[in-house]
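Anyone able to model this chain together with DGJ?
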Amino acid sequence: MINVIDNQYFHLQNNKISYLFYVMPNQQLGHLYYGQPLGDLSNKDLEYLARKVNKSAGTVKFSADTGQFTLADRGQEYPVYGSSDFKAGALEITEGTTPLYTDFRYKSYRITKGKPRRLHQPTTFGDDGETLSIQLTDEEHQLALTLNYTIFNDHSVIVRNQSITNLGTVPRTVQKMMSGVLELATDDYEFLHLSGAWLKERHITRHALAQGTVSISSLKGASGHQHNPFVALQEKNGTIDHGQVYGAQLIYSGNFIGQAEVDEWSHTRVLMGIHPDYFTWEIGEGESFETPEILLAYSAQGLNGFAQETASFIEKHIIDPQWQNKPRPIVFNNWEATYFDFDHQKLIELAKSGKELGMECFVVDDGWFGKRDDDRSSLGDWTVDERKFPKGIKVFAQEIHQLGLQLGIWFEPEMVSPDSQFYRAHPEWVVRHPFSRISIGRGQYVLDFANPQVVDAIYEQMKKIIQETELDYIKWDMNRNITEAYSAYLNEVGIDQTEFFHRYILGVYRLYEKILTDFPTILIEGCAGGGGRYDLGILFYSPQIWPSDDSDAIERLAIQTGTLLAYPLSTFSNHVSASPNHQVWRQTSLKIRQDVAMFGPLGYELDLNQLTETEKTAIQERIAFYQENRQLLTFGRFYQLATGTDNEVAWAVYDETEQKAIVGFYRILSKPNSAADEFLPLSFLSADQTYQVNDEILSGKILRQIGIRKPYQFNGANPDQAQVQGDFQSYIYQIALAD
Ligand code: DGJ
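re: yes, here you go
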């Protein structure tokens, strides 16, 4: 997969992509190509690609010895600002306050086969990975830089990360170090990203590219609700099924920046990595700093092709292998059923009802510990509230297990309430600046996870509960962002406060590592006030994430459509909740709530005591259907179908081996007197086969070229023919090979 030609050209290639770079005349690394596979290249081909007449007028030349050569108009593998290139660079480093204008020259390369999964930091892994490590040095500044590129079989993704080492004796400070760079020869793209807020996370947002910079970022100490560490560049006029798409996606959960800069020659540079604001990292003699990894993904098959490539890569090379293709339990979560108002008996009753309906895992959400009757107290005191559980948590867990259910418990490990024993014992363990004012969010403070002692103390408490309950599932929540970032611990040990944010996230990963080392089979569901930390760093440890506190089926249509551009279906947990919905007070039928929630890991989160007999039957039937089709609905190949209007959403999951599919069609508002004949083409089906679509037998040719007919909606006449009616319509198609 990795071909090195004449110690000058580096070609990473598999059956889906080629990534090509070379040593430029100044011995730095220049980018040549990323896209569809090029096959074997002759020296003539390579020289042709590398040949370049530099822009002369108006540019500054790299040095007096290299003629017209300038970095200004060169695609580069790891550009730095200020040595004839004026665009934003990937690396900034200082000695004291003096910037170093680094000049990293190619020295050697190494190829390593296979990449182990190690829990201390999230990275890609896999036996079939090949990593090309390029060593570069800046002799004058006594610095070494390693650029790592990993390519895997059958995936159109290049994984990158970098490390820098101080070869001198004087400490240096890394001010900025991006995880990845993507250089594109034109600006013929739209910049897509996933933006939003609490209750409306990860909606697809588009910007046209033009000379200048478009950027997204987070400085909240978490990847955040507002922007996701993911950007895609979609070829202008590309569609859901056609055209080139490039993506950059960070394997990291903290502060980040992602940007695309278009220069005066319409060249586009994408940079993504840890946000350089409020960040530095000191490297003393012989010390190194290593960036998080980034995925640079590519597809020529439009947004669906891109999303499918990314999803299958994440499933195989980021998510813990034990969860690959493993059915996820159907969860009952008590949060929207009871909030803080519950006790042992009430939960057992709910668990019994849930079990009768077919649910498989009972998750006790917030409020089981300390003395927590609302969100103002007890975070940090991870011991059971005996007022609510007079027989103790162990007996409760045994009763749940005896019902044949798995047990899950909610924790918010990174937080502490001022009203808690933990805080009273250790006020210095809170993230807090020495000045007197301290911001507070949801009545709570953030614990200093940059301090290993704090992580250990929280873990010891969690461990006891996990052991006592023989816990199957953890919901790991995180409900506020970091302000006035300052660690008393870092101060004590003489580390700069600007290292805090990154050290905090490393502390979070450390806690994950501890839990999963001792309890490797526990299923952790990530959560951060809904979807405030939905990223590949978390997915490395938690194979699924609670995507939003908004459980309204209609809002979830947009959230899920956006999320699935960058993340696999199996990572998206969905709960059927009450109507009217608790977040937007919308009234929707149980049918649409179940029809939306069943795409991905399914759950329920509503008061089961309020259900009518008809609703109970509908839930039982749906759970039985889900159990039969769980693999397809969780791990099937996912397609967004073009509906031609924002008022409609259609999703399909397809199992290629068995050639079966489920399509969900959703129409938000009913429309009077709408078109009589509208279809959704299913291009993934085979033209040579015959399929059963619900009750009808149809040929693959018809289904591919014309499609399934959208459900007929009642609009003033022919009520007996209406398949859907009123607002918030949903319709499910089951498709399988006809006998
Ligand atoms: C926010 C989460 O996203 C909710 O699902 C719930 O767990 C609450 N926190 C509990 O406080």
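The mean pLDDT is 97.
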